[in-house]
Amino acid sequence: MRLDIYRRSEADGKPSYLAVPEARNIPEEATNTDWEVEARAVEFDDNAGQLPDYDIENVSSQIDEKGYAITSVQH
C-alpha cells in the first residue's frame, strides 16, 4: 500500500503524523487542524504493522477502522 503522510506540530513541540492511503483526502474528522504534507506515496508493507519513522502503530487496523492512521498520543 502507498500512503501520503501529513505532519502537524503539537503544543509540546513534538510532531504528530497522519497516514492516509495515497490520493485519498484527509477524512473530515481529522481536518480540523492544519496538516502539512510530509511525504507522498510512501511504500508500506501491509504486514509491517507500524511506521516507526512517524511513530504510527497498527497502521493497517487504524486505516481499516478510520480510513487513516495517526501517531499515538503516547508518543
Q: Uncertain runs with pLDDT below 50, 5 residues or more? A: none
Gap between N and C termini = 24 Å
Element order: H for helix, E for strand:
EEEEEHE
How many helical stretches?
A: 1
Radius of gyration, Cα only, in angstroms? 11 Å
Largest sheet properties: 4 strands, antiparallel
Number of strands: 6
Strand order of the largest sheet: 3-1-2-6
Portion of residues within helices: 10-25%
- Could you say which overall geometry the principal axes of the C-alpha atoms support? globular
Average pLDDT metric:
87
% residues in beta strands: 35-45%
Q: Helix/strand/pairing class, anyone?
A: mainly beta
How would you describe what is shown here?
It is a single chain. The protein is globular, with a radius of gyration of 11 Å. The longest helix is centred in the C-terminal third of the chain and has 8 residues, at 59-66. It starts with a strand and ends in a 5-residue tail after the last strand. The chain has 75 residues and is mainly β. The protein has one helix at 59-66, and strands spanning 2-9, 15-21, 36-43, 50-51, 56-57, 69-70.
